[in-house]
Amino acid sequence: MKTPLYNSLRDYGNKVQYRMHMPGHKSLEELYKTTGFHKEMLNLDLTEIEGVDSLFHPRSSLLEAQEIAANLYGAKESIFLVNGASIGIMASIMAVVGEGEELIIPRNAHRSVFNALLLAGVKPIYIMPEIDFDTGVAMGINPLEIERALTENPKAKGVLIAHPNFYGFCSDIEAIAKIVHKYDKVLIVDEACGSHFKFHKELPISGIEVGADLIVHGTHKNLPALTQSGILHIYSNRVDEKKLKHYLMMLQSSSPSYILLASLEIALKIVEEKGIDLFNSLFENISLLKESFKKIKGVKCLDNNLIGKYSIAGYDFSKVVINFQQLNLRGYEVEAILRDRYGIQCELSDPANILITFTIADSREVFSKVLAAIEEIATEAEIINDKGCLTEGPWHLPQLVYTPKEAENKGWQEIDISHAKGRVSAETLSSFPPGMPIIRAGERVDERVLELLKAYRDVKNIKVIIE
């Protein structure tokens, strides 16, 4: 029998020497040498049996491990996850908001948010992030927009905010928490990319530090835990914990991986014992790299120089966003060149930028290789006069006719886009950049939607609800 998947994973490891993307361990065995974890995986692959505790009813070793995590982060309770941060986000939403009730969310929220809205029958109240139309990146959420949404929608059960967004930019989470709690609402923080914030003074503050009610971490993204490990932190008494744990049990596997659970515990042990030195080294290496980038013509970094603009209050220094708009190169092209010529795979690319994620697993050699590659690519390129990444602003919120669940259960047909005005979309169409829907299922197609689809998507047909 052939093993195409296994072969592709091995081939990737042979071709890509420098992994500038999650998971945070970067396959560096050195991180685990004091525990031997990487050599014991088959022996640790157990099920829920006597002696190793139960994920959904922890009473011994797992309970103790979660209590240690809660103490480390300063949470009231911390619950380990084996289906990623996504499942923590979904369970949080379903525990807080019921059928027909409202939740205030960013327009560019993670797909897990929309999955939860669909399953629970929740009505979304959207808030728009500010957009840097020059680089095409969706930035922060203005706290005043949160207050406006709460004032206009007093029945909303709570607010969900991403902290940081995928590019590493953070809204003013402290101000947002104060506003949400002033209205006695629940604040859910999608902190999937921020499980490391606690471990260095130059990193943004965590949602836990500002008293958010539920905070979700994807510990594999920036810490040396295996993919799909995560933590859901409970900080307040505003949420029904029994209901929350009920949904966690419903949504997660009934055969949780103890390898993932153990990797999570080991990752926390590493950063608790060595985190200061490891993150200091990471910060120093990234600072030196960014200083070197300043000497390369046509290349610039989007980082803490944006604090105070676009409602940005903080920036994760481990996320290095490199902009190439002054060169005759697109971000997609740079990503391909880095991978094919240099064996460097970045986290993502868009028309103007690439995103490189550094973690405590990256050595000085990795930084040197990245710098040398970017220098060579930029030297071979030409300087151009950039006109900006996005030209069709401002962005738009179409009329919501049906909740995601209602739209899912409607019949639909596909029609020519020229006949779509006034119809209700049965599908979601997005533009990247800025990584945000132009229209979502259940929203009415209007003239502005058609303009944006024409500007950013080559859409000839659209699925619409039969009414």
From TrEMBL:
Keyword Nucleotidyltransferase annotated: no
GO molecular function, one term: transaminase activity
InterPro entries registered for this protein in UniProt: Orn/Lys/Arg_deCO2ase_major_dom, Orn_Lys_Arg_decarboxylase-I, Prn/Lys/Arg_de-COase_C, PyrdxlP-dep_Trfase, PyrdxlP-dep_Trfase_major
PANTHER family named in the record: ARGININE DECARBOXYLASE, DECARBOXYLASE, PUTATIVE-RELATED
Cofactor(s) recorded in Swiss-Prot or TrEMBL: pyridoxal 5'-phosphate
Superkingdom of origin: Bacteria
Gene3D superfamilies, sorted: Orn/Lys/Arg decarboxylase, C-terminal domain, Type I PLP-dependent aspartate aminotransferase-like (Major domain)
Assigned protein family: Belongs to the Orn/Lys/Arg decarboxylase class-I family.
Keywords: Aminotransferase, Decarboxylase, Lyase, Pyridoxal phosphate, Transferase
Coiled coil: none
Transmembrane segments: none
Protein name: Aminotransferase class V-fold PLP-dependent enzyme
Annotated Orn/Lys/Arg decarboxylases family 1 pyridoxal-P attachment site domain residues: 3-308
Domain Orn/Lys/Arg decarboxylase C-terminal: 396-460
